[in-house]
Amino acid sequence: MSSYQNLPYQSVTFKGSHNSYDRDESLYDQLVFHPDKPYNCGCRGVELDIWRHSDDPGTGLFTVSHSGGGGPDLSTYLASLLSWHDTNPDHDPVWVTLDIKSSNGDKTTFPDQIDGYLTSYFRTSLIFNPILLYTSKSRSLCENVELTGWPTLGDMRNRFIFCLSGNEDWKSYYANTNQQGCLCFADMDRPDDESNPDVPTTGSRVVINMHIYSDDHDKWAQSIPAYSTKNLLVRVYIANGEDLWNNAQSAGASLIATDKVSNYSWAEVSNDAPFAQRSTFQTVNQRQVAEAPQQMIRLLSKDSA
Question: Which GO terms describe its biological process (predicted)?
């Protein structure tokens, strides 16, 4: 699938690792694509569970672990992503889910803290942030995405997309606070047992997050395509079996998160590429795309190395 760079981001499916910090493979190795064995790693999405420690203004402000709030500083994993970036020029866009595990503390300080942290310990020039999807600033983020979709994979090369997940109060507050100036997206949790979901058509969130179960396949096989028609991205987790994986891809999930990162021959989206065309997606009206302001085109095409 050598031409995948020409596909819009909303039209592809890719593999993600679940709890990427807690794998046998390093974060760096999870991102390496092996053409001879595409089921071994080749992830284009990773997940980091984060805890906030407001009494530490430095690298320890955010730590990464599944529970308890301990673990290495988030900056350690950001450095690993930067290392992979530096040794893989013109790489594919990488989705980074930041799953907020914290619940204590003032949510109103969280937006500035997480954006400030990324500014300090990552490179903001590498971040594909929500403003890049605003072809019309008078419309909401959701309306813009439905209207013009996402850029192509080629236009998003060398970029990282950070998306907040987990704590609903914090991520929804973040999404509704300065959406046109923030660094991260924020997802929206939806159950997997709704066959006729209420698909958002306005607002500040354009990513659906769904824990899928085999018993509910007949429901989410209908709801995922419903989200796709609005150019929303759908992250599903945890696809740890072959049938669940194949059904998630057939339904048109964008990111399929799994614990089976290596040595499972079915855990691939394509036999020759880290992306495959999504089974269900709506072609964006080309006239509407042509009306996108040139500012967006310049931002996407500038050198972000």
Answer: lipid metabolic process
- Of the candidates 165, 124, 131, which has an alpha carbon nearest to the alpha carbon of residue 145? 131
pTM of the model: 0.92
pLDDT of 183 higher than 80: yes
* Closest alpha carbon to 191 in 171, 165, 211, 206: 211
DSSP H or E segment with residue 164: strand 160-166
Sorted by where each starts, the structural domains of the chain and their CATH numbers stand as 4-300 (3.20.20.190)
Query: ∠ CA(87), CA(266), CA(163), 5° rounding?
Result: 50
The DSSP bridge partners found for residue 275 are 14
Residue 81 confidence (pLDDT)? 98
Angstrom CA distances, 295 to 124, 271, 283, 291, 298, stand at 18, 37, 23, 11, 5
Q: Taken in order 233, 234, 240, 245, is the CA torsion positive or negative?
A: negative
Cα separation, 80 vs 86, in Å, equals 10
The pair of structure tokens assigned to 182 is: 């923030």
Reported as a single tens digit per residue, the pLDDT across 285-303 is 333 444 444 444 444 444 4
Which string of DSSP letters, residue by residue, matches 33-83?
B-TT-TTSB--SEEEEEEEE-TT--SGGGEEE-SSTT-SSBHHHHHHHHHH
Q: Where are the beta strands (DSSP E) in 174-286?
A: 185-189, 207-211, 233-237, 255-258, 275-277
